[in-house]
Amino acid sequence: MDSSLSNYTVRVIPGRELSGALCTEWTSLQRSNPALSSPYFCPEFTQLVAGIRNDVEVAIVEDSHGLVAVLPYQRGWLGNARPVAGRLTDFQGLISAPDFPFEPRELLKKCSLRNFSFDHLLTSQSAFAPYVWTTSDSPYIDLSRGYAAYEADRRAHNDELIAVGRKFRKMERELGTVRLEWQSTNRSDLEMLLRWKSQQYTRTGLRDLFTFPWITDMIDRLFAAQTPDLSGHLVSLYAGDRLVAAHFGMSSRHVLHWWFPAYDRELSVYSPGMSLIKLVAQRCQEHGISRIDLGKGDETYKRRIASGSDQVAEGSVDLALSSRMFRRSWQLTRDWVKASPLNSAVEGPLRWIRKARDWFSFR
């Protein structure tokens, strides 16, 4: 199949200039491809970030019949681009029909870009395969047959949900009646969640994301967003009168994306974070949610509660050979150090490098 874009018109518009008519076409295009069900692929998400940042652009690919593909991105220094919201975006890629043929380097040229770096790109987008460095699992919970079927399937594989239920009952006996607020509007709950999350970042040596004003602004705007295609979603778990765990994410129609969970570490013996996700899964069907995306990561709890996983990729599309070789060499060196006996010896410098990288990534 011809992958040339010569038969298409490609134009670039600022994210803030997305019109209602264009968003309608974008939504139709997104819904034509089941792999693009995540909220990250909705035009509303790009619009929201573009309302905060002035570097968001959208590549619009059209033929004589209308829109055929969309690539939202943030333009950085010297024509280097990355997905909208950068590493905060857990699913990345081109919004198009599954079989749309194109060559990423040609698209970059038409957008006057030199590079497009990604770290959560769907591997099902085979056009990017030559530019992929590594792949990772992105687990999900499948609730399409209801919670009971999901739990039966998980119990056949491990006893994680049984253990969570046991700790839940202990928490309720010792702390008081447990209740879940499915769509909390309590801003103090959100503020507590962000404090817990900031403490977690500091404790684990990661850059505190909430020191970046645009990220807290984005969360505030998502908190207020309540539409079928993009809705901010704060759930709060109480035991008695005490907030024990909370999660802030976003949903789009039948998909809930698990994004910022945290819990009261003083109560870790009860595993309140696991009780939270189990109770949310139990409530999903009544709210039309059939899938919870957990995001990339090899955390043990994700593996034990997930129904399956998608594959996402890290890599870079570069027009210049020298740039491509440099980025690839850096990635290979990084992975070699992680797997070698040197890893513990250089953990301190690597932590500093990660923080510096995060500053550039999230600035």
Please outline what is shown here.
The chain has helices spanning 20-31, 43-50, 104-110, 147-155, 160-175, 187-203, 213-224, 272-283, 300-305, 321-339, 347-362; strands spanning 9-14, 56-63, 66-75, 80-82, 95-96, 115-122, 132-142, 178-181, 231-239, 242-252, 255-263, 291-293, 308-318. The protein has 363 residues and is an alpha+beta fold. Strand 2 and strand 3 (66-75) form a beta hairpin.
Supply database-style keywords.
single chain, 363 residues, alpha+beta, Aminopeptidase, 13-stranded mixed beta sheet, 37% helix, 26% strand, globular
Mean pLDDT over the full residue set: 92
- Number of individual domains: 2
Distance between the termini: 40 Å
CATH class of the largest domain: Alpha Beta
Task: Kindly describe this structure.
By secondary structure, this protein is α+β, with helices and mostly antiparallel strands. It has 2 domains: 9-138 and 311-319, Aminopeptidase, CATH 3.40.630; 144-289, Gcn5-related N-acetyltransferase (GNAT) (Aminopeptidase), CATH 3.40.630.30. 37% of the residues lie in helices and 26% in strands. The protein is built from 11 helices and 13 strands. Strands 1, 2, 3, 4, 5, 6, 7, 8, 9, 10, 11, 12 and 13 form a 13-stranded mixed β-sheet that branches. Helix 5 crosses helix 8 (272-283). The radius of gyration is 21 Å and the shape is globular.
